[in-house]
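Following the same procedure, backbone shapes were mapped to integers, as reproduced here:
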Amino acid sequence: MAEALSGLSKDDRSLLSAIETGMKTHEWVPSFVISELSGLPVRKVEFRLGLLFEKKLVERESMHYLGYRIDFDAYDLLALSDFVKRGKLSAFGERIGVGKESVVYEAMGDVHLAVKFHRQGRTSFKHIRRLRDHLTDKPKVPWLYAAALAARHEFAVMEKLYPKVSIPRPIACSRHALAMEFVSGPALNRITLSDPENGLNMILSEVGAARKQGIIHADLSEFNIMVDDSGPKIIDWPQAVEVTHPHAEELLERDLVNVLRFFERKYRIEMPLDKALGLVAESGG
């Protein structure tokens, strides 16, 4: 991806950005619209689009006109270009994680970074729209922009929580990409805690701290709790809801059940849900 980014000209970025804008109103964006949005002559647009098509950075479809659109590869490059332009990113590294709806890469800026690209796609979009607050008022938003809205929502939640809750420091957001401080430790499911009872209490304390800030994670498990030298850090907040959400308490209980089940299975620690809820309330003040 770093090589593809360095190979993009200023005109290429303008064209990809113009297609991105055009996709708000067109499934396939005509070249004359791309020309108008980019400010580049039609003949130059068509020539450069041919090169971008060869690089698999644009898709095209012949109907009664020749239309273009971008997919996530080009969207990734636009987000990275923006991070570089804003001085947030100076080097881009290897992929370090893949989830159901995201992919994460290592990077460098002023600090060691993790860059998360949201990948909400066509097949899951209806499900996403039904469940997530930030999409309920946009029933016709294209799937590409669903990913951007998810990233924007997650970044806003992280900015609200940091540093009162132990999460990675949010650095920047662009389109569907979120740059945050890198967490050096492994996920909870990949480590054996020396003091698991204390570890469980620390996690419940962080859940309580988030609740005090008005946020429920809503997708918490051993897979998105990282453990470094300072203790647990909770990641992956795109499904987070406010405590005023009609299902907030139900989602909180589901989060806690996931965590309690893990500690019971791995460490034989049994804690009733009522007790865990009490500790969360106590921690939240």
